Amino acid sequence: SATAREPIPIAPESELFYERMSDLSSSICAQLEHIRHAELASTSSDISRPSFHNTEPLPQPILLAQVTDDLEDERDAIRRYLEQYGIPVLPTQDYPQGGQAFEAAFAEDLKKCRLVVQLLGPRPGRTPPDLKIGYARHQTLATQVAKVKLMQWRRSDVNVEQVQDVAHRELLWGETVMASTLEEFKLSVLQHVQRPKPMVRE
């Protein structure tokens, strides 16, 4: 029979502890917001009372661009952060790999979104044979051609001058790239979206 797994303690000063506490806080905030909306919706069903329910339409999704393997954790953190505010996030599943299939899937999601968020690391990532410019540059250029708002991020400690790939170096210097901590970038994205804040804040 399966035995219970013993909990593995996490040092309070560790980054993992901070991430877990942040996730817990986000989950609590989301639940409180859900309860508040449910109560307001219930109140609006009584015709003898004024309607206070939220009539704001569901926002258009935000597209989280595919990233290199070293940025998957940061991408997941942004997805969780946006979803706690009720903001839909695309894609709903991983994009197919390979130039033509990837281009088609990304283009389809571009039609549905109002904003593309792209995280950039020091490496350009993979380049399939039928997509010579690579996934990262394609997503940037396709977004610009579609005239969809683009917000890009890189760590402020990335030494761009030492990036060997010339095209990727130019991408990192782009005018839509914010060099900052991830927390600062997340807040910047949220401010652009201008969604209501949860009831409880740290």
Explain this structure to me?
It is a single chain. Residues 1-5 and 43-55 have low confidence and may be disordered. The chain is α/β, with parallel strands linked by helices. It is built from six helices and five strands, in the order αβαβαβαβαβα. The termini are far apart. β4, α5 and β5 form a beta-alpha-beta unit. A five-stranded parallel beta sheet has the order 2-1-3-4-5, with helices on both faces. α3 runs parallel beside α4 (134-145). It has helices at 15-44, 72-83, 99-110, 134-145, 166-172, 182-193, and strands spanning 62-64, 89-90, 115-119, 149-155, 177-180. 42% of the residues lie in helices and 10% in strands.
Tally the helices: what do you get? 6
Number of strands: 5
Q: Sheet with the most strands? A: 5 strands, parallel
Order of helices and strands: HEHEHEHEHEH
Overall mean confidence score, pLDDT:
82
Helix % is 40-55%
Radius of gyration: 20 Å
Judged by helices, strands and strand pairing, the structural class is alpha/beta
Portion in strands: 5-15%
Short description:
By secondary structure, the chain is an alpha/beta fold.
Keywords, separated by commas or semicolons:
202 residues; alpha/beta; 5-stranded parallel β-sheet; 42% helix; globular
SSE layout:
Blueprint: H1 15-44, E1 62-64, H2 72-83, E2 89-90, H3 99-110, E3 115-119, H4 134-145, E4 149-155, H5 166-172, E5 177-180, H6 182-193
